[in-house]
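Quick question, first post here. What does this chain look like in 3D?
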Amino acid sequence: HTIRKDSAILKTAASWVEHADWVPALLTGVNNVSQIKRSRCAAGHKAMWNESWGGLPSEEFLVKLDPKLKGLRGKLYEKTFVCDEKAGYLSFAWAKKFGLSTEVSVGTGSFDAHIGAVGACITPYALVRIMGTSTCDILTAPKKDVKNKVIKGICGQVDGSVIPGFIGMEAGQSAFGDIYAWFRDVLTGPLKGFLEASSAKGSNKNEFLEAYKKSIIPYLSKEAAKIPPSESALIALDWMNGRRTPFANQMLKGAVTGITLGTSAPRIFRALVEGTAFGSRKIVERFKAEGVKVDSIIAIGGVSKKSPFVMQVLSDVLKMPIKVAASEQCCALGAAMCASVVARVYKNLDEAKRNMGGGFDATYRPNKKNSLIYDKLYKEYCTLGDFIEKNTRG
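> Answer (accepted):
Ran it through. Tokens below.
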């Protein structure tokens, strides 16, 4: 994109650097691009780095994508580093600015969700769900189990991207909490327009609107929880922002079926929550279809902390218990765990997790009766998804 907009950049750029690599390089005083230590996580999940084909995609491959990429490969890198390796020591300039010592170790970079899984004390075959506006799902497996198998339909599969020595796999949903926020905005939009057009003066109407917006999702959750799952229920497809997993297709659109004149806002909300849970089940079943087991579910992020209703529906649909990590800041905690290994406080991440992990503060267990109903609704969800994918412009 940058080259197409300003080709002069291609001619003058020394290289292209991931932000997660730039910050450690800056802190350690690196002034030669060839000395920047590149993150295995970033390179593998975002730049298609793989050791088996000599690192990044070849010049030939890049030129097939676009002839303008000719010469780019030689400006990049070969080697990458995992999250518990040292990028260097804090430079004199930054040590002075922070009031610290130049003996402070700086670790290599990584991505938030992957390090959040470390902070959640991920274990092999535990699926860590980072649940917010969207979801990012992280799973690790021993290399001896995966061998050379490529897991189809997920977002990435990288040796050492989460825990060194293990295969890190990434999946996710393009929208999760954003779907609930969208429905909230649908309900508040007309009221906002009315208040803005009204003759009332002062800040009271703005305060009322904000209070109303804040109350909608808690109210809908409370009322939706009173509605039992039903085989004749609404079915919602969670592709309002496209689909990340399985088999990414950002052109797809969402859908809701089964609406009647008797359908209430809480019933639509429940269908949206169920739809996001069915999308989550699709991810779990994609792993299983590829021979990758999912032994347990760990949840972190805002939705896991704020919405017991959503978490219970998710547990019912997945038919698995879900443990919620106690830490409010698992990504920061995971980064601290990696730093503790870099600084040799602990010898490896297993030891760091044992000593620094925050444990879990809630566990949601599936309601067997609801799970049986959701098995049938999930089939309807899959049927709707197949129809939308085959018969709409998306």
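The two ends are 23 Å apart (CA to CA).
Residues 265-289 form the longest helix (25 residues).
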